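Quarterly update from the structural biology core.
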Amino acid sequence: MNYASLQLEFRSTRRITRMPGSRPQQIKAERSHWIRKSLSASRHPDFPIVAIGASAGGLDAFRKLLDALPADNGMAFILVQHLDPTHDSMMVHLLAGNTAMPVSQATDGMAIERERVYVISPGVYLAVDDKGALRLSRPQARHGMRLPFDFLLNSLAHECGARTVCVVLSGTGADGSVGLKAVKAKGGLVIAQEVGEADYDGMPQSAIATGDVDLVLPAAKIAEALVSREQGAAVTPTPRTSRSHESVQAVLPKIIDLLRTKTVHDFTHYKHGTLERRV
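Predicted structure, tokenized:
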């Protein structure tokens, strides 16, 4: 036997020899818990973009929705929260603990990627361009009602079409009730938070009043519906409640929305009691 053969035999023996009392080498075991099939495994380029709008009470609703979403969901999320334009936002920090997805404050030119959460910055409007990047702009009107969610929804409907999902959560006013119609017209999905769960029902109520909302669900169930849809399940619209006679209070959001879309007047923040007496 030559020297090379002896050296090879020695090395082979050394790998299987262990000292008395020592533990045998173990192969690292696979995780014992079940592993869900990744929704993003197909890496299809036309992934859904979920625009989520809220104002008052929105933080709690955002958290409920993100808590219920798996990180590997195959979708991108853009959060529009009405923010004080004179103060820095803490939304990224506050939401980071509710999801394993990266949470970032939106910046101009930032590419939209699946399984990421983008949060609007204070005092700006968000839109998307034809290359799938976020675009920031300053509202042209220095005074008056700002509707950043409507602005984003109209942009998404134009550039992304049926890939767009609109989710309206807790908030006062009617932001989103115009833009969701553009999303619906392009074949996108429109979801509103269940009015009884929302801390402030103005935004979801106004959205539902348009008649263009496909699903009305609690925030956690919205997450389930999004995942099911991405897995290929058909969406079954929430049945509309039929009422032979609706009170003025019930139809008031619809009247306000109609006036806002057909005229230059916006009565969103007027006291409802005052408006009801004028109807």
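The chain has a mean pLDDT of 81.
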